[in-house]
Amino acid sequence: MTVPFVGSRVRGLIVLAAAASSFTTAWAVDAFTVRDIRVEGLQRVEPGTIFASLPVRVGETYDDERGAASIRALFDLGLFKDVRIDVNGNVLVVIVEERPTIAEVEFSGVKEFDKDVLLKALREIGVAEGRAYDKALADRAEQELKRQYITRNLYNAQIVTTVTPTERNRANLSFTVTEGEPARIRELHVIGHEAFDESTLLSLFNQDDGGWLAWYTKSNQYARAKLNADIESLRSFYLTRGYLEFRIDSTQVAISPDRQDLSISIHISEGEKFAVAAVKLEGDYLGREEEFKSLVTVRPGVPYNGEMVSQTTKAFTDYFSTFGYAFARVNARPEIDRAHNRVTMVLQAEPGRRVYVRRVSIGGNNRTRDEVIRREFRQYEASWYDGDKIKLSRDRVDRLGYFTDVSVDTQEVPGTTDQVDLTVEVKEKPTGSLQLGAGYSTTGLSVNFGITQENVFGSGNYLGLQVSGGAYNQSISLAATDPYFTTGGISRTVSLFHTVTRPYYEADGNYKLASTGASLKFGVPFSELDTVYFGLGLEGYQFTPGANGTYTLVDGSYVYTATPQAYLDYFQCTGTVPSVVCAQSSLLGVPLTVGWSRDDRDSTLVPSRGRFQTASLELGTSSDLRYLRSQYQFQQYVPLSKQYTLALNAELGYARALDGSSFPIFKNFYAGGLGSIRGFETNSLGPRDAVTEGALGGTRKAVVNAEFSTPFPGAGNDRTLRLYGFVDAGNVFADRSAALTDAQWKAQNGIRASAGLGISWISPLGPLRLAYALPLRYQQLDEANGIAADRLQRIQFQIGSSF
User: Side-chain half-sphere of 419: how many Cα atoms within 13 Å?
Assistant: First the structure.
């Protein structure tokens, strides 16, 4: 750095060479009082920035020490690549050369990341549009980008930085990325095991050395966070089986020279196996020792179980929190008797102070309105802290289905000893869904389509449209639900529908039943898990008999072969082709409904534990339609292990006519197909018409299903892709018809059963289920007794539903 000589009036000048931490004075200057300060070389930086940073002001004394301090201060701003100070008489002249400003940051070759993610990462280290640029900053940017790719298991990513100067001392930064292939785990070993074989231990891991489905699960792509989670699963496995002193000695991850293959070795020490000798309580238990003892799940005489100990300490702190002790501490201290391999667990409690909630704050809800979340909260502001109510509130928000994650954090209020704030953080997910179902049989293709939005405009309201079409039915329905129609949590559902139903068989001139209606339903919450529904509907039915059928003599009577006789009898149809007239072809129904539901499953998409129940009663009150129709469904999910789940489902239905009228045949129950008894065509089971063989349904229904689900081979512990085996049984039943023989009636009302295998996949469009069923109990063709064969359909699939 050079300083020019400026004439006879120059009292002196300073040459300061900026090094890492020192400056060398080449020319000394006598101290003087500064009359003025002038700045030269500025392009974008405001002069005020210079004046505010200088340690010397007009009217103050300037000397060599202040000169060095001034240059250091200006360099520390990070805005200049050169700084000089000249002295002209009593005037201080500051000459600067600005660093280029970053005009634009661009990426090319980026596929793994959204570019906004990388821009945010660079912004956090100071690389962004409008910021000053230097070479050191560019190097930091390259290292940060490589770090981002390492988090995605791309160890071989290459970054090339190009700097292009532009006008007005600006520069464009361009990062060219060659991402390469992800590093894959080729070897994974647990070393030091004796009590369990390695395959058992490795089955606990979500990461592995790859199976034939690794292209989907990506389980062989290394991630440090996943490995840490797997190590914790390994630790938990031993600690729940008595190995109190189990430890991880080391974890070694070796990468190949081409940075594509990884070898992982986990070294462990199992230690001895211990049994529980006793459990002791020490500390302050608020005079409720017996109540706390009832929460202890650790039992003397059984192997030490770290999970049980954690459950007990958590149960203690949760119970303390129900009395307002938000910061209670419960420590589990083992007293080990190594001579006999026994351990006494001492639970030491410190309840701390009682607090109340000052404020509840909500974050992360960019779409969903605050009130939608707040109305689910049972912990109120200015009330005593209650851990049960906070957990219930979190679960209620989670059950809305609008978020992928819900967390509630507790923070102490500074300056107080008895107040806390709660912060609710949510991560939103798309709440719209698309449903698609299809089936194929000898009668043709049937398609179901639905589109729903569970959180319309962030209001928490539901809006759904369902359309189905096929050889048998065509329908369209629209439903809208306001879950908080009243501030007390009463919901309101309004629905409209139009349906055209044709028979489940092939024949010319099929009959047609069209129905149009609307309903209004209210849901009243009676508890946190129980809801009772009340509804009123208005339905219109129009029946059209088959136009091209013929009358055929059967057992001394003429029957109309284009329409089941049961429909002709119910609608009181008479006449001959083509002038068939039905006395009550148009009917008006006013159904009243009451229902109940209870759901405590841990998930609605992939449940592994919990129970779901629903019951409904429908009462026809119009003069045209007077009937009673009831249904009940029960589901139970039993976790057999981390990988395996047993699911049970049962559906019952009962219906009958009232006041001596005939039961509406179109209100019958049906069975068969996915969601019922797999392996049989949809809604094809139960009583049939004697001549047309059309399925008529029945007034009683009983269906049971059992499923055993397991990880899909090669998919590891991925719960979004499962393989399941199933057994289905049941049928729909009706009273004996005079048109049927004993053999025919018994054949139609016999129990049907099937078994098979299926695949369950949580696809981007919704839950997809594919099933291959083998009928075990079914009716074969018996021409001698006039008994038709069941309609079988071994392969079936559907998107958008379970069971």
Answer: 10
* H-helix segments, 540-697: 565-570
Query: 722 exposed, middle or buried (CB, 10 Å; 0-12, 13-18, 19+)?
Result: buried
The arrangement of strands across the sheet holding 170-178 comes to 101-108, 170-178, 158-166
Residues 633 and 702 in one domain: yes
The string of pLDDT tens digits covering residues 645-660 is 999 999 999 999 998 8
pLDDT band at 2 (very low <50, low <70, confident <90, very high): very low
Domain hosting 423: range is: 356-428
The enclosing domain of 8 has a CATH number of: 3.10.20.310
Sequence-separated (6 or more) residues with CB below 8 Å from residue 358: 381, 382, 413, 419, 420, 421
Q: What is the mean pLDDT of residues 504-509?
A: 47
**How many alpha carbons lie under 13 Å from residue 432 in its C-beta half-sphere?**
7
Q: Distances from the Cα of 174 to the Cαs of 110, 138, 145, 146, 167, in angstroms?
A: 12, 10, 12, 15, 17
Token pair belonging to 428:
């939103």
**Other Cβ atoms within 10 Å of 195 Cβ, number:** 14
**Is residue 400 domain-shared with residue 365, that is, in the same domain?**
yes
Cα(685)–Cα(676) distance, integer angstroms:
10
Q: Which residue has the tokens 């009292």?
A: 11
Helix (H) / strand (E) containing 147: helix 135-150
SS3 566: helix
Tell me which amino acid residue 701 is. Answer: K
Per-residue model confidence as pLDDT tens digits over 413-456: 888 888 999 999 988 877 776 666 655 444 455 666 778 888 88
Q: What are phi and psi of 116, to 5 degrees?
A: -65, -30
Nearest Cα neighbor of 589 from 659, 516, 658 is 516
Positive or negative, the Cα torsion across 67, 72, 76, 81?
Answer: positive
Distance CA 543, CA 297 (A): 64
Domain count, the chain: 6
**Dihedral over Cα of 110, 113, 114, 119: its sign:** negative
For residue 667, give every residue at least 6 positions away whose Cβ sits within 8 Å of its Cβ, in sequence order, or none.
Answer: 620, 627, 629, 655
| Number of Cβ within a 10 Å radius of residue 36 | 11
Residues 6+ apart with CB under 8 A from 214: 220, 714
- CA 722, 725, 730, 732 torsion: positive or negative? positive
Q: Judge contact between 329 and 349, C-beta under 8 A.
A: yes
Burial readout 409-439 (b: 16 or more C-beta within 10 A, e: otherwise): ebeeeeeeeebbebebebebeebebebbbeb
In this prediction the pTM is 0.59
Residues 453 and 524 in one domain: yes
Of 222, 244, 269, which closes a domain?
269
**Predicted pLDDT at 118:** 87
Q: Are 343 and 336 in contact (CB under 8 A)?
A: yes
In this structure, the answer to whether residues 489 and 562 fall within a common structural domain is: yes
**Calpha distance 705→303 (Å, rounded):** 37
CA distance 272 to 293: 28
- Which pairing describes strands 419-428 and 356-363: parallel, antiparallel, or unpaired? parallel
What's the CATH number where 674 sits?
2.40.160.50
CA distance 655 to 616: 12
Contact 483, 462 (CB under 8 A): yes
Which residue type occupies 468?
Answer: S
Residue where a domain stops, chosen among 350, 375, 395: 350
Q: CA 762 to CA 637: how far, in whole Å?
A: 18
Closest by Cα among 14, 11, 10, 20 to 94: 14
Neighbours of 455 (CB within 10 A): 23
Tokens 């070694």 belong to: 252
